Structure formats: structure tokens, C-alpha cells
């Protein structure tokens, strides 16, 4: 790539300065999201053309309060700005983004960055909000005092970055003069503010009013409960038609291909392996996207950090942090985005603890298994006049996951020898209306991550598991279902001695193997074992009477207990490996989840046997 | 950056002693050890002498954490963090 006609800029700024919104506005969908080499900090790069048509490459550096880094994110920002990060060229120019309503804090960071001696432009973001709150900023004067160009931007409005793009099209400003060593940056900021800025109030009235209610010890918690309830209600009810649509599409496609191709190994690979396998995972896309729509909107509005505030004390008691709330919430859709979201937890010990318990949140992939077993074994009757017994069991399973996560985190806290203070120091930003563009880009990013995972890890696992379940073919004259003679079948039969004490028959053991790729595949695998077609859309309804007749209640409850812990999700383990860069953490998670699952199933099975 | 010391004459109250919404000024941030990264970060966040500060919300259990308004920003601080900030109330 030619670098002569490319300008490389980096966006820097405090957290919550609107930097990412500005980045989205500048680059639109021309973004590349990856990781910085060797670490799990997200690297966002995009490009756009300036007024002269020159290509501008823009790097969205992680938000930082100071260059004296206290987290991996801040260290990246420092190293890239100083040109010290291996593989990252030093930017030609820094755009320092400041929130015009929070200049007291943000200008200090500008002064700190100024010491690096790079050409700089200050983007005075949220200038519309500042105006509305009666804050007047003498831009010319501030510009002169800072010694660098200042442009006003409104990241949430179309065309709100025009001034910045125009400024970038001019010749590069000279690097600002460095401040003498040992200058009191806070004092300089206060002097600049008193000469160039008038602010009638320190806070927005709306923030004060909202915080009084939303952070109230009683109402605040009540509102949080209602918000969470509505969110899950929406995830399950809104997603249903979309999921039915995907299901119909998958069934239709496999029927269409089945008709086109002659019966044989290739057709089996495509229809039973690839389409059925991927279809059973893609079906969760609607739930994941709806959950993320809520999470992104709550985050953009400034409410999620408030939830972290309300819950911090509860989470600390269990060895976590208020910041764990967001990752754990995402894990109800799927542990993979949840584990990725732990990047926002700066304390490495809190982050590992959150990663370890994230798989205990009931992800949506466990739902089909729960739904099948509850429908088969729990009578549809009403208890105490208002509650459905099936609903109560479902609730208990979700609750069991949360309680065990808290218990596991507590035990880990007691075990870890490190008694150094854990920090919170969490900024609660001003409330704002979420911008549809940022929501759309955020959802798009999630969908791409999820689908690329489906296309790589899950696709390869699906093919491997299909091969295990299809070869060797049953001998001529075999009477049992084909899978019984395959490698997977033989492994399942061998596993039975381990799982017999918790009440699993060999059919369940076999189904656990394909369940490694994705938990929900266990349902279609059971269908295959019971000699049904796994690809027909109504495998579940055909399976119901069979297992009701053949399994004991104790076995069914034991399998439910097993799935609360369900250690057998390879994609989650792969994500843990990628996010922690440690096989040890992977081994610990897999080991403790397996141990707990076995223990819980054993107790459930024995108690249920004794009672029935 | 110098480590701010509380003047020895008047005993300084910590942020924890403030009532809800009571106006005060930051007097100093007390480091609990020689290299206290939390004290340093608090100063970077704007907890410097003379800044107006107040408690705008308290956590539901044991009034932990506290939501502190400093400058134009709100930070949630755990009690151990807030205890490092010494304040004087306007008389």
C-alpha cells in the first residue's frame, strides 16, 4: 500500500468522550475490527477520504484517563502514541477527542498527550449538548492557549464531523510546544477554563433527576429488575417468529438439496452434517441480536454503568465486581460474546473470575434441551393457583446457574492468595439518547463475529462430528440405528460406565458427543440415535413420546442438572483460550464445570431415585 | 507529581464523612503506600486540592459504592477508594 498519499491518524481521548461515535461517523461501515498483536484489546481501524480525496486511515485507540497506564487498554494507547507498539506505525497526527460538557477532566488528558510532541487536533465533541446546557466556549481563545487547532464536532449528527475532515485536509499543524516538566496540569486546565469557558451549572439537571430515581436504593433496584425482566421477555417473544423462519429455511434447504442429490456420503455430509449442524446454531442469531440490541442501547444511554453501580456491592461479596454485570448479562445469550465483553474489566483478577463463571449463565443454546425435557417430564399443571409448574422449573434452572456462579466466584475468592485491593473507580457518564447508527453498527459487528465463528470453528467441528457419527457404516444386516456402529456410538457406549452412576443411558452418552460442538445439537443427536431423521423440523415432537416412555424421571432431572453446568461447549473453551491466552484457565474451566455437572447430576439422580 | 500531604494543623475529614449532597472541597488525596496507584489515579481523575466535590448517590448495601461528583464528572468509588480523599466542608 502506498503511504505517501495516506494520512495515518489516531483518535485518542478519555473514556465516554464520544470517540467511538465519532469514529463510526467518520468511517461508516469501512471498519476493520481485530485485536492488537498478542493481547486481547480490540483494535478498530477505518478509513475515509478527506476533502482533497486523500485516503485517511484512522485508528480508534482505547479510551484512557492518563498515559500512566493502569490497564492493558491504556497501555496500548500509550505505546501506540509513542510509536513503541510492535507492528504499529506511529500515527502522523493525533485527534484528541474531548467532551465539551466535561472539559475539566478531558483537557487534562489533552495536555498530557501534548507532551508526546506529535501534531494534534482537538475535536470538541458534543458541542450541541454543551450549547443546550448554556456552556459557552471561546474556541479561538482556547485554541490559542492550547496551541493546537480545535474543531467542533457532533458525532451523533450526520455531517457533524465536517469541520474535522476539513481541518485534516489542510496541511498538518506543527506539533504543539511541550509544557515544562512538572507543570501542574490541573491548574493549567482551570486557568484555561476560567479564561475561555463559562459554565452555568456543573451537572445537567436531567442527570441529577434521573440518578435520584435510578440509583435510589429501593426504586433503583426495582427498576433494574423490571428492565431485566422486560429484556428477557423481549428476547424470547420477539425472537420466536424469526427463529421459526430460519428453521423453516433450513428445513426447506435440506429438503431441496436432498431432492437434487443422489443418496450417498456427499449428500449425508451436506444435509445431515453441514446444513443441520450450522442451521442449529444460526437459529440463535435472532435471540443474540435482540439481546445485544438491548445491551447496546442500555450501554449507549448510560444506564448499564448505573446497573454496575447498584450491583457492585453484591458482586464484590461474591468475588466479582460491578463491572462483571455486563459480561454476565451477555452470557445469557451466549457465553462467547460474554467472555469477549470481559475486556472492559480492568482488574485482571476480576476479569479471570468473570470469565470462569460466565459459562454458568444459562445461554440460549441450553433452551432447546431444557424445553424438550421439561415438556417430556414435567406435568403442565398449575401450582399455588398462578404459576405454571413447567415455568417454575425453567426459572429454577436459570436461577441455579446464577447461584452456582456466585458460589463458584466466592470459592475462587477464598482460594486466591492475592489480597491486594480491587478497584472500581467507574465513571458514570451523562445520560444520552442512543443513536440508531451506533446501534446498527454495533449489531452488525456482533452478527459478523457470530457468523464468522459459525463459518469457521463450528463448521469444522460439525464436519468432524458428522464423520465420527457416520463412520464406520453399519455392517450388512445390522438392526440397530446406524449411529450405534459408528465411532461416536462406540465412544458413547464406552462412556456409559462413567455416566451410568448419574443415570445416563448410552443414547444420552452418544448425544453428548455432538453436543460438544454446540449444546443444542444434543437434541437433534438424540433424535438421530432414536432412529429418527435429525433434519426434519419436528424431530423434537417425535422425540417427546419416545423419551417419556423410555427414561425415568430421575434420568431426565439428572440430565437437566447436567445442563445447568454443561461443560461440553468447545466454542466457549476456544474463546476462553483466545481471550486469556492461557491453556491453564481453559483446563480449570473445563475441569470445574465437568466436576460440578457430574456432582449435581449424581445428587439429583440419587435423590430423585430415592423419592420416586 | 508531588504527593500531597494533609496539613498537620487541622485533622481532615475523609469523603466518607460527608452527608448526601453536602458541598465540600477536596483538600488532598492520601496515598496508603509509597506507590499507591489508586491515589495517583484519583488525582488524575480530578481529585485535586480545591475542587468541589459531593456525594450524589449511595449504593444500596452499606452505602457502598458511593457516587461522587467531581468537577463535571461522576465516578463510582468504593469506600476504601473514597477514604483516600480528604475534604473540607465550606463553612
Report on the structure:
The complex is a heterodimer of chains A (612) and B (91). Chain A is an alpha/beta fold and 612 residues long. Helix content of chain A is 58%, strand content 9%. Chain A is built from 25 helices and twelve strands. In chain A, a hairpin with a 6-residue loop joins strand 2 (31-35) and strand 3 (42-49). The longest helix of chain A is centred in the middle third of the chain and has 42 residues, at 219-260. By secondary structure, chain B is mostly beta strands. Helix content of chain B is 13%, strand content 38%. Chain B has a six-stranded antiparallel beta sheet with strand order 1-6-2-3-4-5. The longest helix of chain B has 8 residues, at 37-44. The N and C termini of chain B lie far apart (30 Å). Chain A binds chain B through residues 65-66, 68, 70, 101-105, 108, 186, 199, 202-203, 207-208, 211-212, 215-218, 220-221, 305, 308-310, 312-314, 316, 322, 421, 423-429, and chain B through 37-38, 40-46, 48, 51-52, 56-62, 64-65, 67, 69, 71-78, 80-81.
In short:
Chain A is an alpha/beta fold. Chain A has 25 helices and twelve strands.
Low-confidence stretches of chain B are 5-10
Order of helices and strands of chain B: EEHEEEHE
Give the oligomer, counting copies of the same chain as homo and different chains as hetero: heterodimer
> What strand order characterises the main sheet of chain A?
2-3-4-1-5-6-8
Mean pLDDT of chain A: 85
Proportion of residues in β-strands of chain B: 35-45%
Helix percent of chain A reads 55-70%
What's the total count of β strands of chain B? Answer: 6
Please name the defining characteristics of this protein.
A: 612 residues; alpha/beta; 12 strands; B: mainly beta; six-stranded antiparallel beta sheet
